[in-house]
Amino acid sequence: MELGRTPHRLLRRVWVPLSLAIVALGVLACIGVSVYVGWQLTHKERQPITETPHDYGMTYENATFISKDGKTRLKGWIISPQKPARMTVVFAHGYGNNRVQENVPFLPLAKRLAAEGYRVVLFDFRASGESGGDMITIGVKEKDDLLGVIDYAKKHFHEPIALYGVSMGAATSILAAAEDGDVRGVIADSPFSDLESYLRANMPVWTHLPDVPFTYLILAIVPALADLDLDLSSPIRAVDRIAPRPILFIHSKDDRSIPYEESVKLYRTHSDVFQLWLTEKADHVKSFSLYGDEYVERVLTFLRSLENTSS
């Protein structure tokens, strides 16, 4: 009888540790993949600056701005109108892009605004384009970058300031306007309403990995490794500090990256002073490309409405 039980004891001695080892390796592999993907999300390859305002017949100045953190140098352009500027409009690009934002694209829109008398400031967020910094934080620290550009505009120009941002830049514009009361208004094209909740719902879209376990692991590991507080990138917590200053939300119902309901949630917080334009058949931040003249007219109408208001 004792001999008959020996194989079972040997199997238990082998298979229990082996099973535990396999589970441990699986956990470590998932953690490793999560760390790698998180690193990739915050360290995107920089997109080169492939065009300048000169390519669109505009004169411009190269400029260097300092982020509100006091150390990150940001590169950009200032496009001034031929006549006295009616307003300065600071453009804020999206995640993984730069001041050209080719998929919108920024420069043709900047030309339309400059022709109407608006000064346009375009710049690269940290870790993007030609700016300093080595980590994209999806709005957490980009807010300081935008506040630094706003400080520059207030120091060098006398006209009012408005913000125009797309995607991450739209969310960041809301965050910055909440902290700087001199911003007259914001045009937010396709923002998210809260970074953490958006990532929890849409991480598989970004990573192409299964929701379980990777979304949970990435959101637990990356903020700790990168010293990021995702709560700081929450436009829906910031809008109360903007109202009654206006925000124009633009979002396509067919956006496959950030659902249009994100803008709807933000708009509904102060629907008495905020505006919402929902487009159709346009993918993420493609409403300008698809709607062209109507897009420009809505933007200009909004900017004109800001000129006679005080911040």
UniProtKB/TrEMBL annotation:
It comes from the Bacteria. Keywords: Hydrolase, Membrane, Transmembrane, Transmembrane helix. GO terms for molecular function: hydrolase activity. Coiled coil: none annotated. Pfam families: Peptidase_S15. The lineage of its organism: Bacteria, Bacillati, Bacillota, Bacilli, Bacillales. Residues 69-206 form the Xaa-Pro dipeptidyl-peptidase-like domain. The keyword Transmembrane applies. The chain crosses the membrane at residues 14-39. InterPro entries: AB_hydrolase_fold, DNA-binding_regulatory, Xaa-Pro-like_dom. This is Alpha/beta hydrolase. It comes from Geobacillus uzenensis.
